[in-house]
Specification:
Layout (H helix, E strand, L loop, with lengths): L1 H15 L19 E4 L1 H11 L1 H20 L6 E7 L11 E9 L5 H68 L4 H33 L11 E4 L12 H11 L1 H23 L5 E9 L10 E9 L10 H65 L5 H36 L7
Length: about 425
């Protein structure tokens, strides 16, 4: 009696439909979809390198460094002095004297050459920093592209599972009409279909979010109102890598290591600038004085020319704190270069280990798991449609297939991300999906 009541309740609930429950409002109508522009990885990365705002800001760093080189080549400006002597302290009514002087500081110790050397090293550092940021932005953009492709793959799998479950609903309805199953079984499989439909909606949201994440890497695109749709295939061909060759290349050419080397060069050049700055700079001055004649006192008009040399007294040079600090900074930069080489070696090995694990994981899925899962589901569904299997067995088989394919999709995405990380770590780039 209780089973009959439960079956009637399920039939009433299914007949009433979702709108009769009143628990959830109907979903809002979808907003208008913008035009979509399909893009492959190479085209996307090319656009990123041209329009990325972070890279555009970093390029100004090179221009700033160029300006610093130009400033370093300048020499001190001469100083022009003009004045009059009008105060007569002797009360002899002497005439007003006009004074004009021109002075020039003479830099000794190779200060200008040291400045130019340091500024030139700074420009090389700015160029290396720009290249390092370019490599990082490209790798991050490629990972975002992989995430977008992976989200689309998950969505396709969710839709495929939903279609499979909807076929199971149709088969169960047919068996219900034939009297082979109860209304409870139909209600259960419809609940399962709604659950998968909810997962499809969530996967669609992830696709939209991952597509929008690609926009973060692009600058303002005037007149472009289209949304990006990445296209590609994460089922990459197996790559054979030479660990020793990758490590050797990375420890010589990786951009962040070059930044460390350039920083060391700047620190050494700064030591030279400090050493040159410890030289005192004399000032040469040429002075001309002109006084008119004094008719009352019988003094003739005079015009005199003088030359003076000024030399600062370098008591501050007794302290070598500035030179000691510059030398310590140079030693620190050299130690950081050694640390960077070690870090590069370790990171390449780590990337190789992760890529190898991801590659083997994909191989396991491709070795027959997918076909076995599909075969088990089809066999169970065939038996169910003929009354030889229970509904719970079909649902379990369907969930297994869903989990296996999602695991496979995750393994493909992980392998693609590992390949991007390996190429970034090894200072190479030939990725394409």
């Amino acid at each position: 009696m209780r089973r009959l009541a439960l079956g009637l309740a399920c039939q009433l609930a299914l007949a009433a439909g979702p709108g009769a429950r009143g628990a959830e409002p109907p979903p809002p109508s979808p907003s208008p979809v913008a035009a979509v522009r399909q893009v492959r990885l190479g085209d996307f990365l090319g656009e990123v390198l041209q329009t990325n705002l972070d890279l555009a800001a970093s390029r100004f760093g090179v221009s700033i460094a160029d300006a610093q080189v130009s400033l370093a080549r300048l020499v001190p400006d001469p100083q022009l002095t003009a004045g009059i002597d009008t105060m007569d302290l002797t009360d002899q009514k002497l005439p007003t004297t006009t004074v004009v002087a021109l002075s020039q500081t003479i830099e000794l110790g190779g200060k200008r050459r040291a400045r130019v050397t340091e500024a030139t090293a700074g420009r090389s550092l700015a160029e290396a920093q720009l290249e390092d940021q370019l490599q990082s932005v490209r790798a991050n953009a490629a990972r975002a592209f992989v995430d977008a492709l992976a989200a689309r793959q998950v969505l396709a799998l969710k839709r495929r599972t939903l279609q499979s479950v909807e076929k199971l609903v149709a088969a169960t309805e047919q068996r219900l009409r034939a009297g082979d199953v109860s209304a409870t079984a139909l209600a259960q499989v419809k609940v399962e279909a709604e659950r998968f439909r909810s997962e499809v909606v969530s996967a669609e949201g992830e696709v939209r979010a991952s597509d929008l994440a690609l926009e973060l890497f692009l600058g303002a695109r005037a007149g472009v109102a289209t949304a990006l749709e990445p296209i590609g295939d994460l089922r990459l061909a197996v790559r054979d890598v030479d660990p020793a060759a990758l490590i050797a290349r990375a420890v010589e050419t990786r951009s962040d290591l070059i930044v460390s080397l350039r920083s060391g060069e700047v620190a050494k050049a700064h030591v030279g600038s400090v050493q040159a700055g410890r030289w005192v700079d004399p000032s040469l001055a040429a002075e001309m004085k002109q006084a008119p004649s004094d008719a009352g006192g019988g003094l003739p008009a005079t015009r005199t020319l003088g030359l003076t040399v000024s030399m600062p007294l370098p008591f501050s040079r007794l302290s070598k704190a500035d030179l000691d600090g510059a030398r310590a900074a140079a030693s620190q930069a050299e130690t950081l270069v050694q640390a960077a080489r070690k870090r590069v070696d370790v990171e390449v090995r780590q990337a190789l280990a992760r890529y190898d694990a991801a590659r083997r994981s994909v191989a396991i899925y491709a070795g027959g798991i997918l076909g076995n899962a599909d075969g088990a589901l089809e066999a169970t569904r065939y038996s169910y449609e003929r009354g030889a299997a229970r509904l719970i067995e079909v649902l379990d088989a369907q969930r297994t297939v869903d989990d296996v394919y999602l695991g496979y999709a995750g393994a493909l995405a992980d392998r693609a991300r590992a390949l991007v990380a390996l190429q970034r770590a090894a200072a190479i780039w030939d990725v394409d999906f």
